[in-house]
């Protein structure tokens, strides 16, 4: 029973980390600035139409929201496949999991140091975008663009995604591994849907986050560095025990 509840407490913590990592990925400098033009392209409308609140443009924005939903479905497809692969890897290297956690912890801490500005890793500042073709305005095209996004922005969101994949590898459960990647996809995808639905009202919020990109990067760096340190030292399991003792209700999860 203790092992089961420990896993539940650990999963609750990992799920929270995955959601936060997804949200911070959305707010990153290589994602947030391109959200409005991507939404306009996927909806087959202009940026002016996207920002217009008049009734005759609301139908166009509804198409944009539908396209955004298929876009999120596309990137979620890739993330779930990666989650399945990470869990399979964790099962295959079970005997070497301690070494994997040690190596993954070091790599994640290095990525965290990059976002904190301690060091600079060149390839993390590049965007390797994939072209989904001239398919703007269609749900299928938006789905393809979501697939391309998940692959093409790997250098930018790779550290965050890699952190969640490392946690999925640790778990060894396909259900929980896929769950973590689904939560990460929600953290990244739900803001896309909110912007598509309420873009004219959210322009101020988008501008605010753009002005504070440096702080967002430092928060992401601190999260990466902390999780990397916990993986390196085995503190993640110890913190799960602390969660279970502090919040006994977690023992009722699952």
UniProtKB/TrEMBL annotation:
Pfam families: DsbD_TM. It is found in: Membrane. GO terms for cellular component: membrane. The keyword Transmembrane applies. It is a multi-pass membrane protein. Coiled coil: none annotated. Residues 14-232 form the Cytochrome C biogenesis protein transmembrane domain. Keywords: Cytochrome c-type biogenesis, Membrane, Transmembrane, Transmembrane helix. This is Cytochrome c-type biogenesis protein. It comes from Albidovulum denitrificans.
């Amino acid at each position: 029973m203790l092992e089961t509840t420990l896993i539940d407490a650990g999963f609750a913590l990992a799920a929270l980390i995955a959601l936060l990592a997804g949200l911070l990925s959305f707010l990153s400098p290589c994602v947030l600035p391109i959200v409005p033009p991507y939404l306009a392209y996927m909806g087959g409308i202009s940026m002016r139409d996207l920002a217009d609140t008049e009734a005759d443009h609301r139908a166009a924005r509804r198409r944009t929201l539908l396209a955004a939903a298929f876009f999120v479905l596309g990137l979620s497809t890739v993330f779930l496949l990666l989650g399945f692969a990470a869990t399979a890897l964790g099962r295959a290297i079970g005997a070497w999991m301690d070494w994997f956690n040690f190596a993954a912890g070091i790599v994640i801490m290095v990525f965290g140091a990059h976002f904190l500005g301690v060091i600079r890793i060149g390839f993390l500042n590049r965007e390797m975008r994939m072209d989904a073709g001239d398919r703007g305005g269609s749900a299928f095209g938006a789905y393809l663009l979501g697939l391309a996004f998940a692959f093409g922005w790997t250098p930018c969101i790779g550290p965050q995604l890699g952190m969640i994949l490392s946690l999925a590898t640790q778990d060894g459960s396909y259900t929980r591994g896929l769950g973590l990647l689904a939560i990460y996809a929600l953290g990244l995808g739900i803001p896309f849907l909110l912007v598509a639905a309420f873009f004219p009202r959210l322009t101020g919020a988008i501008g605010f986050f753009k002005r504070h990109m440096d702080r967002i990067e430092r928060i992401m760096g601190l999260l990466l560095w902390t999780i990397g340190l916990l993986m390196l030292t085995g503190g993640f399991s110890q913190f799960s025990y602390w969660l279970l003792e502090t919040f006994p209700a977690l023992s009722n999860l699952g």
